[in-house]
Amino acid sequence: MGTVIVSGLAIGMVYAAVALVYNVMYSTSKVLSVTTGHIAMLGGVFGAYIIAALGLHWIVGLVGAIVVGAVFGWLTEVLAIRRVLARSDEHLWLLSTLALATIVQHAVALWWGTEPKPFPRLIPQDFSAGVMDQKFWLPVGCAAVMALGLELFYRRTMYGKVFMAMSEDAFAARARGISTDRIRLVSYVLSGALGGLAGFAAGQLTFAFFALGHALTLSGFIALAVGGLGSNVGALIGGAALGLLSAFASYWFGGEYQQTVAVGLLMVVLLVKPEGLLGARNVRPV
Amino acid sequence: MTTTVPASKIAGLVFGALLIATLPIWAGDQYQLHLAALIAVYWILIAGLNLVVGFTGQLSIGHVGLLSIGAYGFAILAGKAGWSPYAAMLASGALGGVCGLLLGLPSLRLPGFYFAMATMAFAMIVNELVMANPDLTGGGVGLPGPLFPAPFGTPTGFYYLVAGMAALVTWLTWNIARRMWGRAFISIRDNPVAAQAVGVPVLRAKLAAFVFSGVSAGVAGAVFASLQSYITPDTFVFELSLFFFVCIIIGGRGSLIGPLIGTAALTALPELVAPLAKLGNLFYGVLLLLVVLVVPEGIGRVFEIVGERLRPREVHREPVSPDLPRLARALKERA
Amino acid sequence: MFRLTKVVARLSAAVALAASAFAAQAADPIKVGWLSSLSGPLSSAALAENEGVKFAVDEINKAGGLNGRPIELLTRDTAGDPTKAVNFAQQLAFSEKVHFIIGPVNSGEGLAAAPIIARAGIPNLVIGAVDELIDPAKYPRAFRVINTNRQWISTANDYALNTLKKRKVAVIGDTSGYGTSSAKTATELLKAAGIEPVYSVLIDPNKTDLTDEMNKARAAGADVVMPWSAATGLLGRLLNARGDMGWKVPVVGHPALMASQIRKLLNKPDYWEEAYAAGYQSTTFRPDGKLPEPTQALVDKIRPKLGNGELDILFWWVAMGYDTVKLIEHAVKTAGGTDPAKIQAALENTRNFRGVYATYTWGPKERNGFPDSNMAVNAANTFKDGSFKLAPR
């Protein structure tokens, strides 16, 4: 029973980390990018590549994963978001991010292969550690650090306050002299870096596997929707809820209905409280 | 309000229709006939999906789930339960419609990204349910797809069946798109708030489009199962949904001919260009990205632009030539 | 657009013809279609089989062709997609009008392509393991070269029950198509032997940790764990869970347990101990440390084509690909041509044809050619150069 709770919590925190990445992207651009899960996938794959294939120290792998994530975030903004937001059509960004996500997923499949590859051990630890194994606690720690870091970022730093200003009212922010385009780029780079870190921390749990992209996009989104768009604490709660629910469902009923359970959770929350548990009621002037 | 259709466009359509009707005669062999039938089957689904994605602007990326439901429904009813294939096909369509209703009711209220994710999750759930009930669906092994009785049992006969059904669906969607419902859909896509203000029943219209697309997807699934002669869960992957989606976007949202040409081109392309079989999905992603960034209105627009360049419309020039001497005299008089 | 395909096909056929006839006269080539999932899932098996097929075709063509006619190999990459498999099967059968079709590799693709190939009446050498691929009545010209899934399962069951003398079996499948049907067959065969599994579960191939399932199996008192999944990620995690828990239970199951990718996924190399899988006598080292002569001969011949180093793939894939082409050679020589009915008769009457991978026997009502006597149980951690040692008896 202990392992069920711990493994559910661990994978839930991976989802929570992805939800945090969604939040950062959403705050400045009001865009939910399909590429979010793929950033984490890239973090895991490149971390494994740098440490295992290139044989470098894991700190280099960590930095490498963060850099790759940041570059991909930058690419997402430049390719898929910038030109598209300029047009008034609301849903083109969904198409462009979906296209970019597909490109990345299949490019990685062609390069890395379609089999899951091992993610190396980061901290020397005996394998019989059971529930204290680092593959469970690394994602939990990573998500906690990310959430804490983001809170400090938003409250204490100038850039954080600028992000919050943009998320409340982009036009007003621009009127006050904030370069919204540049800030948006910075937020995507930051979210990419965070995603890469999340994928790296989760690597031992998920193995380096190209198909994680879509799975994490969907699950991270469910965590986000359950917890509430825009709330970091909500992201943590939503992720934990989803992870634990999936783990208990497959423990009691077997793994056949995993997706159904996850989406069931999503549908229930959306029907009862559409903006999520801790989300803000979306009042839009018309 | 009708716009005059140029004679060249009508001639082109008639010629295309003639080509399609006589295809079994001039197609090289059974393989090309099979390919044409596959395009027709895909088009039955895509024509319905076009109403949802192209006209109403609801980005559904999970329609492969409805295709799967239609295909398995047909295979189970016509195969295991021994129904007549025609009855099974109609039942698949109805089943697709019902599932479209069940999916659409909770999801269509949600904003764009939420809706897309809900449809993606729906496709995954359908796959899970298929695998989890092997006694009904054959599980991983799959089910054979029954053939239609004569005269549609032969490849040529079957081609005419699906081509006829595709023509029917095209006619239906064309009529819907031209008239009141079509305009309601377009208004919902372009500005839902204004549409609601004018009195368009937004949710009901979205649901109607979605259920229609469910019915067409169910019917498409039925003939797909018969065409493939064997269905397994491996066929109904997310990438197929993406393929349908890309056909519509590339063809141009809001038009019928565009997605039709898009479907034909994208189905035939991996067959002609061998490396594309491996790089297929990468290619679709790149194509989608290019189209969204460069010509969001679809490739049809590219042809229009090129057409304009080659044969520019006549612009009546009314040069303004002021009578300068008279102006000079008038100014001199004042001075 | 359609006409162009034909022109291109004719041109490429002409070029291939010119290129492939060395000492052979410019005779009518024997066209062999090869449906292979060279990219996508299970591509590692397909790539290895491809090497075997190509090597055999080159070998025959260099020796003057088959009955003086060169073999023309038309490879089509189906990428694991049944729709593409159907399309390419149609293309090979009706457009290219091939004389034989080898494959497809994946069972899902095979199930979809078999009716089409049967309708065209083209002899088909089947290399998928799922039982439903073979039916002497529905698919009279489909002859299976690989062993059947049942042969894998009953070999493993026999080892677990009769050699290791275990009675309490935990059956683990995955939620994919192959996993669910294999787990079902495994349970059936166990029940036929009088054993009721103490624990049975289907696991999502991407589930990150299998400690719960292994704990439940241990709690149910299992003394042998039998996984029937081709997903290397799942099998790796299963062995890891067993090792991390410190549970000394033998694992007997699907050949994928022996794949070299598993070794890299293990937390410690000794987690591969006491893992046994169904394998073949033809790729097993005998007690004197040598492989059977035909296998060793092929390994030596083909090693330069595989990178000239130690082999990292399962050699039986290569040997099987090689054998399919040799079987085509045998069939054409026996039938004196490529007439499909005569080929069917020739293959039906094949008795004990010696290949590298196995010795094949078919019959008028029997389309599974792989002998039970070639099955063996190997120990996973004895992998060396593509083959294994026998599991301890």
Task: Provide a descriptive summary of the structure in words.
The complex is a heterotrimer of chains A (286), B (335) and C (393). Chain A is mostly helical and 286 residues long. In chain A, 76% of the residues lie in helices and 0% in strands. Chain A is globular, with a radius of gyration of 18 Å. Chain B has 335 residues and is mainly α. Chain B has a domain at 24-237. Chain B is 76% helix and 1% strand. Chain C has 393 residues and is of the alpha/beta class. In chain C, the strands form five sheets. A five-stranded parallel sheet of chain C has the order 2-1-3-4-5, sandwiched between helices. The interface between A and B is large, with 43 and 39 residues.
What is this structure, in a nutshell?
The complex is a heterotrimer of chains A (286), B (335) and C (393). With 286 residues, chain A is mostly helical.
Radius of gyration of chain B: 24 Å
The helix count of chain B comes to: 16
The count of β-strands of chain B is 2
**How would you classify the quaternary structure?**
heterotrimer
Mean of pLDDT of chain C: 84
Identify the CATH architecture of the largest domain in chain C: 3-Layer(aba) Sandwich
Q: How many separate structural domains of chain C?
A: 2
Q: Which runs of chain B of at least 5 residues are low in confidence (pLDDT < 50)?
A: none
Cα distance, first to last residue of chain B? 57 Å
Supply the number of helical segments of chain C.
Answer: 12
Mean pLDDT of chain B: 85
Report the helical percentage of chain C: 40-55%
Question: Which bin fits the share of residues in helices of chain B?
Answer: over 70%
Major sheet of chain C: size, sense and barrel closure?
5 strands, parallel
What sequence of helices (H) and strands (E) makes up the elements of chain C? HEHEHEHEEHEHEHEHEHEEHHHEEEE
What is the 3D shape of chain B? elongated
Broad shape of chain C: globular
Q: Strand order, main sheet of chain B: write it out.
A: 1-2
